[in-house]
Amino acid sequence: MYCLKYTVFNNNKTRIIMKEITKFYEKAKQSAKDHMKKGQINAYYQDLKAMNHYRRLIEAT
Predict the structure, then answer these.
(1) How many CA atoms lie within 13 A of 42 on its CB side?
(2) Is residue 3 part of a domain?
(3) Nearest to residue 32, comparing CAs of 55, 16, 61?
(4) 50: how many CB neighbours lie within 10 A of its CB?
(5) Residues 22, 25, 27, 33, CA torsion sign
(6) CB 54: neighbour CB atoms within 10 A?
(7) Please, which of 9, 35, 45, 56 could form a disulfide with 40 given CB 3.0 to 4.6 Å?
């Protein structure tokens, strides 16, 4: 899981950071679907936590 420890939100970097966050959110979402299909509950839960983290970052901007 990729975690942004700091965020710099100015005009030029905001778009780049938002694209990265959105990519990581979608990757975690797909991974969660795959783990759910395989019945891997612990991995599924970790992916849901990652999705929640990225969703909060997206909503904060």
Answers:
(1) 0
(2) no
(3) 55
(4) 20
(5) negative
(6) 24
(7) 35
Number of domains into which the chain is organized: 1
Q: How many CB atoms lie within 10 A of CB 9?
A: 10
Residue type, position 23, single letter: K
**In a domain? residue 24:** yes
Does some domain include residue 4? no
Phi (first) and psi of residue 60, to 5 degrees = -75, -20
Cα–Cα distances in Å, from 40 out to 1, 6, 51? 17, 31, 17
CB burial readout 17-36, b (16+ within 10 A) else e: beeebeebbebbbebbeebe
The model's pLDDT over 1-51, given as tens digits with 9 standing for 90+, comes to: 444 544 555 555 667 788 889 999 999 999 999 999 999 999 999 999 999
